[in-house]
């Protein structure tokens, strides 16, 4: 791993900054303290700052020379509605809010890169530091775009990263094409006719209707879509009934759908609606089908992935530049990649060994998985991620368009 001397020398400062953000988590579109901290840091290094994009987003601009080359680098800032179970000194001070996905680390890595580039950057062009709110379900990327992100800051391409537990520290991973899936939710209300449980023939029981639907939905995955296309239909909630001796008059089903392509998603939404309607009708019931599309699939651009891989190999080495297996999780960086060329990639967060000195429970729960109440970002990644951002910027600005 090729690190930058000044980033290593300032490591303690950025660790303290990261832990301060971790201790003060803010949920989507509530990142006022975090955004102000980011803005003040950027301004202290002479970087032009724009506040309030996508409500609480921040964009910093750093220009050098006279080139028209431009580049966007993105970090997310928001936390999750989780109660933290860690007991170390920088644990969340706000019950029910926690940086359980490492956005505190993402923000700090980009700040470290911004500081280095402002003081030692060797490039000709303009780099935009995009600090985005509300990745965790709020669609902050979409809101920044609606606020004119790409019109006000006309970047040629945009890159984003995420830490990934299980990939060793010091490693990077990326892939061409889909790297994360779309995120979608469904809700079905089955309406029957309530009755005494001892006299079910006098009612229309929605419970067996729901059971038939749940089973039938899986045939969409196994029998309707092409076997080579990837999709997951997960029924995660079934709510019905108030008493054990009553046939309920309605039943509600909820869950999620994940796909790597819009075409497969279109097929699944259509077939789920048909199955819901006709299954209910077969039992004499009715069904209300609601389907909501949250985030589209995150699809990397081939040219930018090829460029990024070269930078990864330069910073981390060929043996530490990995092929990322696409994940069925979702990311609103997808909205950026629908508008601009770019790539989303991973930096290895290790397997939780960095947490053992701080929290003995780490030994019992294993790797520090994302969205886990015991999770903590690996501070060793800060100079690694910052070095990648710096080298990516310098290489991008020096490359031919």
TrEMBL record:
Mn(2+) binds at residues 101, 103, 136, 162, 371. Keywords: Hydrolase, Manganese, Metal-binding. Its cofactor is Mn(2+). The Mn(2+) ion enhances activity. One of its GO terms (molecular function) is metal ion binding. InterPro entries: Amidohydrolase (IPR017439), Bact_exopeptidase_dim_dom (IPR036264), Peptidase_M20 (IPR002933), Peptidase_M20_dimer (IPR011650). The keyword Signal does not apply. Residues 185-277 form the Peptidase M20 dimerisation domain. Belongs to the peptidase M20 family. This is Amidohydrolase. The lineage of its organism: Bacteria, Pseudomonadati, Pseudomonadota, Betaproteobacteria, Burkholderiales.
